[in-house]
């Protein structure tokens, strides 16, 4: 409708105001006039949509023991007892274990901390040095981002020598993890051993205590070329520690067992990065919509301003409404214009805050996914 047509239309539907009228009459005339030309303002909050992330662990990981939290700490516990000198296809089992560990640590995400504890590296396999050997379990590489060269420096010199204090090593592991409470960390233990406890320790109880403590660690055991009896014992340790037992008969199987652990950690990283990226993209789209909606409000205010000003001025200039009526109508319009400007500023400021809050909330929910699962587990 052209401007002249709008003016003519008002003359058809609203009476002229040639004489002064009471405010109640002017108010009714204004409300009728405004109803005819008021613009519809979109609700800014309609921009807010529910942000969704894909729950981790359904199709991605079937085993709930590996629903990881934001920080992952992996402790490798390596058997360096005398029996690790045995060879498979001309290569010592210890060297196979070392090479598999190097491969494992080199592929870990930067976000994961790695620690290396060893046992059986002191004394020898005789009764004379048993007490010394059974006491010896050392954290050679304290938790930090994996540096393959540093790890090689501490592991390469190791020679297969002594006894097998698995229980004592797990007791010491509790101290290793002391700075990483399970509330905010996923703490994983991977024991690589070719045999059972030989130092009168109780690794099953130690594994359970480690898992039940505030550290909430998951104790996994890889039995390397272990007999049936040894497999049963090592499996019991893993079950007590809430972890998984894997049997490896040769180097390829050992490397594959460790690679599965690395793959789970990598999968966690990819899921987390993917979900954060997904949420970030949704937030960016909402922010873009908010900017566009701000612009739409400005356009609507401008359109209303033009229509009201043009028509009221035209009616006044033609004598259809007197000066008092004109000034009243314009004052009412300015009230509406100022109100919607204030609403625009407040609503969009609130909207932007809500979008940011929504983003933060979704990031927290991604973390809570782990918390919930781990609480159910325990």
TrEMBL record:
SMART domains: VWA. The keyword Transmembrane helix does not apply. Keywords: Coiled coil. The keyword Coiled coil applies. It holds the Pfam family VWA. InterPro entries: VWF_A, vWFA_dom_sf. Residues 73-268 form the VWFA domain. Residues 269-296 form a coiled coil. This is Ca-activated chloride channel family protein. The lineage of its organism: Bacteria, Bacillati, Bacillota, Bacilli, Bacillales.
